[in-house]
Design a protein that fits this description.
The chain is an alpha/beta fold and 502 residues long. It is 41% helix and 12% strand. It folds into four domains: 41 residues, no CATH class; 244 residues, Type I PLP-dependent aspartate aminotransferase-like (Major domain) (Aspartate Aminotransferase, domain 2); 105 residues, Aspartate Aminotransferase, domain 1, CATH 3.90.1150.10; 65 residues, no CATH class. Its cofactor is pyridoxal 5'-phosphate.
Length: 502
């Protein structure tokens, strides 16, 4: 955050107005304060943000979804019998996802059903829960996932006390081998998962082979299509060679797709589909052992606002099938042009030839520091996502490409060239030897509050100032740390940021 943006957000004293003032504040003043705070954020529209948000650049869509959200914001999804409008919209969203992802009448999954969730993480947690609870006699349930699977599977395993069995991916193809997945399945395995595509690199796992070995072992198979499930079918219709990945594949028992990604609905709406109602049944939680109402929930939350669901329904109705074809076509054009810009840049290499909506690249030149390059692109107004090295996979830069990017590609190409030149002129980040030794050898439990505070201050993160404008040094340190220490460092760093003012 720049000093100017921070002042605009907090005022000249640097203090955010208290959330609970002694006396109420006029509505216009409150809205003005929120607008000032938002001025410090990355722009969510305009095709310059390559992560976190999905912008179709459809005129009037924001106004439509805001109105739909407001009209149903106070509707509560806790009881579908009390609010039939919400039940109707949820069923309509699920039906659209079923149709798009290989289910429904006349298909191999005619009885497919689903639930609307708050996002991909909840969908994956519920897929794991359903698989675990379907095997109540398994004392130590396990889930097999490629190492490239979304981190939400690890979160699900942590929350649900399920063991995670990671399968390596090839450094060349960035996919797991089907034989390795088969070898990882044990009698205690309750679920095998794969990605369509993986978030980090945008490649589609060998779903057909993985589903076959899972079915042969009598194990459920979940396809995480949260990221690409709404766009891959349209890419196929545009002539791209998209492999089968959905409910049309025998052995796939469930699949998830986020509507707040490439369906371009506002946050946060995802859909979790099961091949039939029996497979979905263990997803539910019901409890009657108290004197209040009998609780029955398909998801993690009980009370759920109808706002996001109404906004998603409005989005799908307004864009329509033909509109999604057009948005996919614009996205493909942007992906091809961005990939060409990377190929034309000496020292950069695509991690994989794009086959979805991701452009991911790494550096093969020691003088071209990826983390410095990310900072230089940020200075030029482009928000990209650095990814740390993992095993044999090098550090990389991830670009989530949306339809709004297409008109900006030429501008990005020029800025990339300038940023690369500036990165070479700056040179790589050089951490002190003692800091590198600490990052590579310090056990996570040895991090003391004093050590964390001193380290954060040396990285420009102390004193409640938020994250530094340039993150290359922080990212270099995190990249040098093993995953367990990296996790602990990030917990401590984010904990320093997320503290209320007193």
């Amino acid at each position: 955050m720049t000093d100017e943006a921070r002042t605009a957000a907090t005022g000249p004293t640097g203090a955010v107005p208290p959330a609970l003032p002694a006396q109420g504040v006029p509505a216009e003043q409150v809205l003005a304060e929120i607008r000032a705070l938002r001025a410090a954020d990355r722009p969510t529209h305009g095709g310059r943000l390559f992560a976190y948000v999905y912008d179709p650049a459809v005129p009037g869509l924001d106004e439509l979804t805001s109105a739909a959200h407001a009209g149903s914001a106070h509707v509560n999804g806790l009881d579908p019998t009390a609010f039939p409008s919400l039940l109707a919209m949820e069923n309509a969203l699920v039906a659209a996802a079923v149709q798009l992802l290989g289910g429904g009448p006349g298909t191999a999954a005619p009885d497919a059903v689903g639930s609307v969730t708050s996002g991909g993480t909840e969908s994956l947690i519920l897929a794991v829960k359903a698989a675990r609870d379907a095997r109540p006699d398994t004392a130590e349930p396990r889930v097999v996932v490629p190492v490239s699977a979304h981190a939400a599977f690890a979160k699900a395993a942590h929350y649900l006390r399920v063991a995670l069995d990671p399968v390596p991916v090839s450094p060349e193809t960035l996919r797991p081998e089907v034989a390795d997945v088969a070898a990882a399945i044990r009698p205690e395995t309750v679920l095998v998962a794969c990605s369509a595509p993986s978030y980090a690199h945008g490649v589609v796992d060998p779903v057909e082979g993985i589903a076959e070995v899972a079915a042969r072992s009598g194990v459920r198979c979940h396809v995480d299509a949260c990221f690409g499930g709404w766009t891959l079918p349209y890419l196929r219709r545009l002539g791209l060679p998209v492999p089968r990945f959905d409910l049309s594949v025998p052995g796939v028992t469930s699949i998830s797709v986020d509507l707040h990604k490439y369906a371009y609905a506002p946050k946060g709406v995802s859909v979790l589909l099961h091949r039939d109602p029996a497979l979905r049944a263990p997803q539910y939680f019901a409890f009657a052992g108290w004197p209040g109402y009998t609780m029955i929930n398909p998801g993690i939350a009980s009370t759920r606002s109808g706002g996001p669901i109404a906004a998603a329904y409005a989005t799908l109705r307004h864009v329509g099938d033909a509109g999604y074809v057009e948005l996919a076509a614009r996205t493909v054009e942007a992906v091809r042009d961005l990939a060409a810009a990377v190929r034309a840049t000496e020292g950069l290499r695509l991690m994989a030839e794009p086959e979805s909506t991701v452009v991911c690249f790494t550096s093969e030149d020691p003088g071209l520091d990826l983390f410095v390059l990310v900072d230089e692109l940020t200075v030029r107004g482009w928000h990209t996502q650095p990814q740390m090295a993992y095993g044999e996979l090098p550090a990389s830069v991830h670009l989530t490409v949306t339809a709004s990017v297409a008109p900006r590609v030429a501008e990005f190409r020029e800025d990339l060239a300038d940023a690369v030149a500036a990165t070479r002129a700056t040179g790589p980040v050089r951490l002190p030897e003692e800091l590198l030794a600490m990052a590579s050898g310090l056990p996570p439990e040895a991090l003391t509050p004093d050590l964390v505070a001193g380290l954060a201050a040396s990285l420009g993160m102390g004193g409640g100032t938020g994250a530094p404008d340039r993150m290359a040094t922080v990212n270099t340190l995190l990249n040098a740390a093993p995953p367990a220490l990296r996790e602990r460092l990030l917990i401590e760093f984010v904990g320093l940021l997320q503290r209320p003012a007193h």
